[in-house]
């Protein structure tokens, strides 16, 4: 067996199951409401389902690793429309992927040289795929802690030069998971400067980019930032996106990577052996999704209504506020986050995720400690009911 497997940590939801088992039988007294996992629950748009049904003949052919040219063109055109930039070259700067999770993991395997004492810089808290990808590629994660006083951003100047010199890959997530914070143009400028100096690749996880609250103020994306800063070649930058949250199709497993043509070329070589070609059936459904914005606007409306309904209930009892984007609340708890989640579930049947399960202790602290992540993915009335139960629990 690969000895690196032993370095992997239990997934947060495995730890959560063990924690909730301690709550006792009283948890069954109320109908459970699960707000712990970021799985969209809104209806899948009919146009996507219909496109998939109409493409069933595609099951009879092997799909190309590089993806359907029509899908690459649809993705490229969407990027241009979404970010107000020249559409990237669909032949050299775009690759379809089986969801952003698969691509984020595989990209690390393709770009890391494990013989060079490689480091991978990860935000902390973080999506656990970043850590697992680094470890299985033979690198060591270096965690940079989110700071509440920086809107849960990062003090990049605090990273020592000897760490930057060993860094081969940097993961960023914007809008962030779990805090929903969005990177600024100055943040991108600093990271591009560091990447130019030290030569590392940047993997920008943007799977929450289409969940935001103001239609006139969209979150800044990595490709957009690169263009604004005169980096139209996207050197050392790869952006990862997905239809899962945008279009309510987490089971479709469809997304893309876009950016530096040189990185795309090497990543495609890796994927040729990796065996991750997208089915023509999924490709046709994805084309339909990327070409339609009406369902995405409506999706944002549903999330906005939930935030508008839930925050007035929770703000008087919890240290919580509306994020820049995404569908999470990142709330401070009055005591240990694990105790809070366990006792909340036991008393109310509501499940949240302990923030400490999303982070590692680094530089003397766990930046997720004493916080919980609440995913507003359930129907509006369930979210309101859950918020009311949380408020009653805290006021008891």
Task: Give a brief description.
This protein has helices spanning 12-20, 46-54, 69-83, 100-111, 128-136, 161-166, 185-198, 222-228, 243-247, 261-274, 280-290, 294-314, 337-348, 380-395; strands at 33-34, 94-97, 119-124, 140-145, 167-173, 201-205, 237-242, 255-259, 328-332, 350-351, 353-354, 371-375. With 396 residues, it is an alpha/beta fold.
What does it look like?
- With 396 residues, this protein is α/β, with parallel strands linked by helices.
- 40% of the residues lie in helices and 14% in strands.
- It folds into two domains: 3-43 and 295-395, Aspartate Aminotransferase, domain 1, CATH 3.90.1150.10; 46-292, Type I PLP-dependent aspartate aminotransferase-like (Major domain) (Aspartate Aminotransferase, domain 2, 3-Layer(aba) Sandwich), CATH 3.40.640.
- A seven-stranded mixed β-sheet has the order 2-8-7-6-5-3-4, with helices on both faces. The chain has a three-stranded antiparallel β-sheet with strand order 9-12-11. Strands 1-10 form a two-stranded parallel sheet.
- Helix 5 (128-136) links the parallel strand 3 (119-124) and strand 4 (140-145).
- The radius of gyration is 21 Å and the shape is globular.
């Amino acid at each position: 067996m690969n000895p690196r497997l032993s370095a992997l940590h239990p997934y947060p939801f495995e730890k959560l199951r063990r924690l909730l088992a301690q709550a006792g039988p009283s948890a069954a007294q109320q109908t459970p409401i699960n707000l712990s996992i970021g799985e969209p629950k809104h209806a899948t748009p009919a146009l996507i389902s219909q496109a998939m049904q109409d493409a069933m003949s595609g099951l009879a052919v092997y799909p190309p690793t590089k993806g359907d040219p029509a899908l690459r063109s649809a993705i490229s055109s969407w990027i241009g429309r979404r970010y107000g930039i020249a559409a990237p070259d669909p032949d050299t700067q775009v690759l379809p992927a089986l969801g952003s999770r698969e691509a984020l993991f595989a990209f690390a395997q393709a770009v890391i040289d494990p013989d060079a004492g490689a480091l991978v810089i990860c935000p902390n808290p973080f999506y656990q795929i970043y850590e697992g990808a680094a470890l299985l590629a033979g690198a060591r994660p270096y965690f940079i802690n989110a700071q509440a006083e920086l809107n849960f951003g990062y003090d990049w100047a605090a990273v020592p030069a000897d760490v930057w010199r060993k860094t081969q890959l940097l993961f960023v997530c914007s809008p962030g998971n779990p805090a929903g914070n969005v990177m600024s143009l100055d943040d991108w400028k600093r990271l591009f400067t560091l990447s130019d100096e030290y030569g590392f690749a940047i993997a920008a996880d943007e799977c929450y980019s289409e969940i935001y609250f103001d239609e006139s103020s969209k979150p800044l994306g990595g490709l957009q930032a690169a263009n604004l800063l005169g980096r139209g070649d996207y050197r050392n930058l790869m952006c990862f996106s997905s239809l899962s949250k945008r279009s309510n199709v987490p089971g479709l497993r469809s997304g893309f990577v876009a950016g530096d043509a040189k990185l795309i070329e090497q990543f495609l070589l890796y994927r040729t052996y990796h065996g991750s070609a997208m089915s023509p059936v999924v490709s046709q459904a994805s084309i339909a999704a990327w070409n339609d914005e009406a369902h995405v606007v409506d999706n944002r409306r549903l999330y906005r209504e939930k935030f508008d309904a839930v925050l007035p209930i929770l703000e008087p009892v919890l240290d919580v506020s509306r994020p820049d984007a995404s569908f999470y609340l990142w709330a401070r708890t009055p005591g240990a986050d694990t105790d809070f989640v366990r006792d909340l579930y036991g008393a109310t049947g509501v499940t949240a995720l302990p923030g400490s399960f999303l982070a590692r202790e680094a530089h003397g602290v766990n930046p997720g400690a004493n916080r919980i992540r609440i995913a507003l993915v359930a129907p509006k009335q369930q979210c309101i009911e859950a918020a009311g139960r949380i408020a009653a629990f805290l006021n008891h």
